[in-house]
Specification:
Layout lengths: L1 H52 L1 H61 L4 E9 L2 E6 L3 E6 L3 E2 L8 E7 L2 E6 L1 H6 L8 E5 L6 E5 L4 E6 L3 E2 L3 H6 L6 E7 L2 E6 L1 H6 L14
Parallel strand pairs: 2-12, 6-8
Antiparallel strand pairs: 1-2, 1-9, 3-7, 4-5, 5-6, 7-8, 10-11, 11-12
Length: 270
């Protein structure tokens, strides 16, 4: 019995020593594996960290260059528009108001003059381009052959010069150039205007004719003409005889329409 107990005790002692040896050998192996994993992760972090930090300074430098360029362009465009646009609009409004007011006053005067015409009147009809124009015969002094013209300084293009007729000087006006921007190629006659205030003659290619006209055939409604033309106040009425349309002229407005408009200094000076 004693021998059997001793044998069991020795076996159990051997098993215990084997377990202790296995524990000692296994534990350091695990520690070594863990330490290898930790070192590997540390290396990954150290390698990855410089890649992330490298692009950040480039982004900062690119954004810093774009900002000052955009800031310089914006104030220039806004300042020029705000300074010029109001002045220009104010000037345009002033001119249009003056023109509309003058046209309304002129049309009112012309309608009053047409209303005072006799029932029958005699007119002088002449051609300008392809259109016919007329003046009251009392406004025509004479028709003469074209004479040599002297230069008229500081005059519009359609004023071709000055003509000396019977000791008096008249401006020679090319209405074809004024109305249609086409110069009269072969002016043969000068129609001399009979007016107390205006010394004017008209260059004509053909000899004018006289015609009797009823005042009821002269229409004072020129609204369509005013819409189509910028400045047509030199026409005071439209004569319609059968199929003919003749523009009845206002001699005074022929000269006044060439005058410049006076604009206040505050609308021009900046």
């Amino acid at each position: 019995m004693k021998k059997q107990q001793l044998i069991k005790e020795t076996k159990s002692a051997k098993k215990a020593t084997k377990k202790k040896v296995l524990k000692k050998t296994l534990i350091p192996a695990k520690d070594q594996a863990d330490s290898k994993k930790k070192s590997a992760t540390a290396k990954k972090k150290t390698v990855a960290s410089p890649k992330k930090s490298a692009p950040s300074p480039k982004k900062k430098t690119t954004t810093a260059k774009k900002q000052p360029v955009a800031a310089k362009k914006k104030p220039i465009a806004v300042s020029s528009e705000t300074q010029i646009a109001p002045k220009l609009k104010e000037l345009i409004n002033y001119i249009s108001e003056k023109q509309q007011g003058y046209r309304a006053d002129t049309r009112k005067r012309q309608k009053e003059e047409l209303a005072q015409l006799p029932d029958t009147l005699q007119i002088v009809v002449f051609e300008i381009g392809n259109e016919e124009f007329a003046l009251d015969i009392s406004q025509v002094k004479e028709v003469v052959l074209t004479v040599d013209l002297s230069a008229a300084p500081n005059s519009p293009n359609h004023v071709k010069g000055m003509a000396s007729i019977r000791g008096k000087t008249y401006l020679a006006m090319d209405l074809n150039l004024k109305f249609q921007n086409q110069e009269t190629t072969d002016p043969k006659f000068l129609l001399v205007i009979n007016h107390e205030e205006i010394a004017l003659s008209l260059l004509l290619e053909s000899l004018p004719s006289t015609l009797k006209c009823e005042s009821q055939n002269i229409s004072p409604d020129l609204s369509m003409l005013d819409q189509a033309a910028k400045n047509a106040t030199f026409i005071k009425g439209i004569i319609q005889i059968e199929d003919r349309i003749i523009f009845y002229m206002d001699v005074k407005e022929l000269v006044v329409s060439d005058n410049s408009m006076v604009v206040p200094d505050e609308l021009i000076n900046s």
